[in-house]
Amino acid sequence: MGNGHSGEKPYDKIEVPVKTGEPVVPPGPISWGPLRKTGSQILFPMVRADNPRIPLAHAVPGIDISHYQPNLKWGAIVGEGFKFAIIKATDGTGSKSSTFDAQRLAAHNNGIIAGAYHFARFGGLSAKDEAAHFLKVTGGVRGGELPLTIDCEWDRYTAKYSSGHTMDEAAAKEILEILERVEAAIKMTPILYTSYPFFKGFSNPERFFRFHPWNPAYWRAGTNQITGPKSPLPWSKPAFWQWTDKYPNARKITGDDNLDANWFNGSITELGKMTKQ
Predict the structure, then answer these.
(1) Which domains does the chain have, with CATH numbers?
(2) Measuring CA to CA, how many Å separate 15 from each of 12, 94, 144, 181, 190?
C-alpha cells in the first residue's frame, strides 16, 4: 500500500498456535465475477475518466491508514464521505503499528466501518508466526468490522521469494498459508491486497479465488486514463480498488498530501454484509 510502509523491518517473533485447514466459509455475499484461468487481464472501469471521485455505478468510498497518518482528523474523514477505514495492524512476525489501537477505536467512535491489515514478508519468516502475530494483535474481527486483510506486495527488504518484482511458487505457498490460518481463526473470508503486476509468476492462481481481491491502480490528475484496476488472475473484477495514494483533500485529513483512497465495488448494504455480524 502507499506511503512507503514496505520499508519497515520486522522485530522479535511472537509464537501463538493457530489451526489451519479447509475453507470454513463461502466466498462472500458478492460475486467478483467468474473464475478466470487464462486470458488477458481486464481493466474494470469503476469511475468517470475525468473525475475518479464519481463512480460509474454504486460504490462506497473508504481509506486505508497506518502509523504514517498519526494525526488524523476524523471529523474531516466523515465529512469527505468515507465509510470504511482499513488500518495497518502488523508487519512480519513482531512489528505492530503504533497507531493501530487508537485508529481502530476512532473509526468505531465515528461510525466508520473498520478493518485491519497485515503486511506480509517473504522469505526467512514463518507463515504460521505471521498469521499468529496478526491474530494476537487484532484479537480477530470485532462486531461490525470487515474481514482481516493480508497485504501481498513487493518487499525490497525480504525479496527472497520473488523475481523481477513478481510472485513465485514459494511466495504463493507462503501467502496462501497465512490466508488459510487467518480464515480458520476468524471464520470469515479474508481480503487479499495485491496488484496485477505483482500477483503472477506462479501456477494455479485459482487457489486464491475465494478471497476478496483488493487491487491498486493509481489515477493521476491530468491523465484521465485509469478508471479502474486490472485484477490479476483468477479474479474478473475487484472487491476494493485503491485508486490513489494522494487523495485530493488529504491535507484536511492528514495535514499533508499523503492519503490512500479506495472504492468498494458495491453498495453500502453489500459492504455491511461483509462485516462480522
Answers:
(1) 59-274 (3.20.20.80)
(2) 10, 10, 28, 14, 21
